[in-house]
Amino acid sequence: MSRSCIPEPYSAGIFLTYKCNCACRHCLYACSPRWPADWISEEDAGQVLAHLAQAMRGKYPFPGRVGVNDGLHFTGGEPFLNFDLLLRLTEKARRLGIPTLFVETNGFWCRDDATTREKLRALKEAGLHGILISANPFILERIPFERTRRAARISREVFGSNAIVYQGFFFRQFEQMGLSGTLEFEEYVRRAGHGMRYAELLPGGRISYKLTHLFQHYPARRFFGTSCRAELIREWHVHVDNYANFVPGYCGGLSLGDARDLPALYRGIDLDERPVLKALLTDLEELYRLGLAHGYREREGYISKCHLCLDIRRHLVRQGDFAELQPTEYYDRLED
Ligand code: SF4
Ligand code: SF4
To answer: Ligand 2 pocket test: which of 4, 231, 314 has the largest number of ligand atoms within 8 Å of its C-beta?
Structure first.
């Protein structure tokens, strides 16, 4: 039997939901308003948080200091769509002693100063250490920039240096452009498209279907001979979704197993039961062969190995029952 052990994570994110008020063209997790309003249950979250608290214990010399790849973050989807749940999970995480805790948001809810301040203070009192506010040309298509600015200003007031704007480059660029309201991506490119050189875009997820024109294309064979072991089996910035799937890093639509029982994953997962994962841990060519065996046909080109991987997985999920391709709805939401 072929097995692989998952290491104890020292940093992780928990998706409260895949539902989002936006459907950004660069979203790795294919979030959108069309997902059902499924939220992580407090019972599941409690089990996952308890395991994560144990895995993180003693690994943070400066607890409470926020960094993108440190500690635990609540994310999605948009966590502020269910503020009460976010608040209760924050309290739970604090009680369990999670060393560093922040939330990621697109800032849609920052419609006025008073409400923004009230919510952020309530979260801080509940035990949240910081916040990450998204700023980029795709968010700007849906979120009026004045809300992002308000989110950043009041977050700094409440959380000080633990308020992160990601990416800071775009935030400063939008300020210099004097933007307010929203802006279509094509208009942004026309006016200030040189900024895209600084975009930290991971060429996977929805990008593979919505933004391929920004990238050069290659035949599938260019990506043969590489495995994804480093991305799949790692201890930093892993995710657990609201269905308790253990999502490796940035690989949306893949599940290493049930995160409510993390110790079972540390002991090892059976790869013979998960042929897609087994192929990805070996060589992208193996995944390609698996795809061909199930009727997959090569596209004209791929922008990255993640595009190739995702396109094959999207085909496979329609062909059969693959336990590691979860949640299956992810594959339906890629072109939202
Ligand atoms: S990138 Fe963020 S804001 Fe955009 S759809 Fe995904 S979760 Fe929502
Ligand atoms: S190719 Fe697939 S498994 Fe590998 S990093 Fe990209 S999305 Fe993840």
So the answer is: 231
Count Cβ atoms below 10 Å from residue 165 Cβ, excluding itself.
21
Residues 6+ apart with CB under 8 A from 209: 334, 335
Residue 1: per-residue pLDDT: 63
The ligand placed nearest to the CA atom of residue 142 is 1
Closest residue by CA, ligand 1 atom 6: 27
- Enter the CATH code of domain 8-210+235-268: 3.20.20.70
CA of 223 to the centre of ligand 2 (A): 11
What are the tens digits of pLDDT across the range 40-96?
999 999 999 999 999 999 999 999 999 999 999 999 999 999 999 999 999 999 999
Q: Locate tokens 């309201």: which residue?
A: 181
- What is the value of pTM for the model shown? 0.96
Domain boundaries, the chain: 8-210+235-268
Residue 62: closest CA among 177, 168, 161, 181: 161
- Write down the residue that tokens 């697109």 correspond to: 106
**Residue 164's pLDDT band (cuts 50, 70, 90):** very high
Q: Is the beta carbon of 256 within 6 A of some atom in ligand 2? A: no
Q: Reduce the DSSP state of residue 218 to 3 states and report it.
A: strand
